[in-house]
Amino acid sequence: MSGVPTRDVWDNIAAILRRSVPRQQFDTWFRGMRLVSMEPERVEFSVPNNFLREWILKKYRGILRGAVREVSGGDPEIEILIDNVAGGSGVNAGGERPGAGKIPGRADPVATGTHHATHPPESDVVLNPNYTFDNFVPGPSNNFALAASLAVADSPGRSYNPLFLHGFVGLGKTHLLQGICHRLMSRRPDMRILYLSCETFTNHFVAAVANGELDSFRYRYRHVDVLLIDDIHFLANRDRTQEEFFHTFNTLYNANKQIILSSDSNPAEIPTLEERLVSRFKWGIVSRIDPPVYETRVGIIQRKVDVHGVHFPEEVVRFLGESVSTNIRELEGVVNKVAGMSQIYERPVDMGMAREAVRDLVPRRSVRVTVDSIIRHVSDHYGVRISDLQSKRRTKSIAFPRQVCMFLARRLTSHSLEEIGGYFGGRDHTTVMYAHDKIRRAAEEDGELANTLDRFSAELKT
User: Fold this and answer.
1) Rounded to an integer, what distance in angstroms lies between the CA atom of residue 436 and that of residue 429?
2) Rounded to whole angstroms, how far apart are CA atoms 180 and 155?
């Protein structure tokens, strides 16, 4: 096999592994593996973290060895290294010479040590290198959340446990979670950090149940020092997953391990979330992140401008800060667009570029959107009476437009869930949250509905 490119050899091995294990198992355990070298007497693989190395040695050594035999035509010794040392000095993360993880042989204990600065050691998520505390712009809307995140990063499991951050999309929750990861990784490289989305947690659990691998699932999630889960509100309406997470939470909490969660909503406002989980999420610190005030938006623009190295006149900075007020991602996107236009046109940034950049994103955002205007707009589009939308009627022809109204009110107004529910026959906050999530999920699968909602938003803001 010495004349065959390493990439082709790995593709052949991976194809055999895919035939040998279910897709979910391959994606979970082998997706991050790579072939480092292949000689007649020895084959070296690498994986991103210690957990994957140990689990592959424990559960899949026979399958991996069989795949190597089939491709190589021989029976070479197999070694599994950690990414940060693969191809390097030949010493693995635990300080042993290569061969500590070889097959056959007894798997060694989980090794600890250094790791990639963008990869939490127990995770399959690559961190955004820009999402650090140094790059986070503080302000009145996020000061407390930032302070709590710093405290957790400096003293995990001691200061605030759990830490629960909530707020609308694009306000910095993920930035803070990844900032915690970066800080922990730089100061505590021995820590086992597991960072992922709630959707990934749910998918792993469903696959573990289907494949009879609950033990491996529980080992992965309950033997970490820090667990960070983004968008925990996706636990809504998933009873078995909530049950599993409840026990995972208790195991980690009782062992003084740090738990950090983010959500679009306060724990009490997540529909169908079990009360015992709501109670536990409130044990530590619950911190809301609000839309940035004008001064913070200007600070974000200036920080982004420094990264691009393009000069923005003061009037452009003020204009952008006033025009985009609800979402940091939108704000950063507009700055990127203006900087890009300057480079493409090969001329300095001016107000014309700024106006063109925000024209499609925030068309004439001078009109304050009200729930009443939303109801009138949706009523006209779907041909239903306003009185029906605000009634207790639950027929499908009325329920869907009503849910669209609730979705838009949640996105375009500053009203609380309870206040929005009051416009629609006195419905409670869980009904509003359910409607919001249902329409959001439907829009992700239905392009026509997504376009309709975007058009509604643009027209209502005009």
Assistant:
1) 11
2) 11
How far apart are alpha carbons 98 and 81 in whole angstroms?
7
Contacts of 341-347 spanning 24+ positions with Cβ under 8 A: 342/310, 343/310
Q: Return contacts of 212-218, CB within 8 angstroms, 24+ apart.
A: 213/25, 216/55, 216/59, 218/248
Q: Is the pLDDT of residue 168 over 90?
A: no
d(CA 104, CA 146): 48
Beta partners for residue 194, in sequence order: 227
Tell me 129's DSSP state.
T
Phi, psi of 121 (to 5 degrees): -60, -25
Residue among 443, 431, 380, 384 nearest 406 (CA): 431
pLDDT in tens, 325-359: 777 888 888 888 888 888 887 888 888 888 888 87
Distance CA 294, CA 235 (A): 34
Kindly indicate the confidence band of residue 140, based on its pLDDT and cuts at 50, 70 and 90.
Answer: confident
* Mean pLDDT computed over 151-164: 87
The set of residues, in sequence order, having a beta carbon less than 8 Å from that of 71 and lying 6+ positions away, is 1, 9, 12, 13, 16
Per-residue pLDDT at 114: 32
Pair 228, 180: CB distance under 8 Å:
yes
Structure tokens at 357: 């950049």
* Distance (Å, whole) CA 135 – CA 51: 30
N- to C-terminal Cα separation, the chain: 66
- Provide the 8-state DSSP code for 119: S
Cβ–Cβ under 8 Å, residues 2 and 40: yes
Which pLDDT belongs to residue 29? Answer: 74
* pLDDT at residue 226 greater than cutoff 90: yes
- Give yes or no for residue 203 having a pLDDT over 80: yes
What is residue 123's predicted lDDT score, i.e. its pLDDT? 65
Which one-letter DSSP state was computed for residue 223? S
pTM given for the model: 0.55
Could you write out the DSSP letters of every residue in 81-137? EETTTTTTTS--TTSPPTTTT-BSSPPPPPP-----TTS-TT-S-PPPTT-SGGG--
Given a contact cutoff of 8 angstroms between Cβ atoms, the answer to whether 425 and 386 are in contact is no
**Angle at which helices 351-359 and 328-345 cross, to 10°:** 130
Cβ-count burial of 397 within 10 angstroms (0-12 exposed, 13-18 middle, 19+ buried)?
Answer: exposed
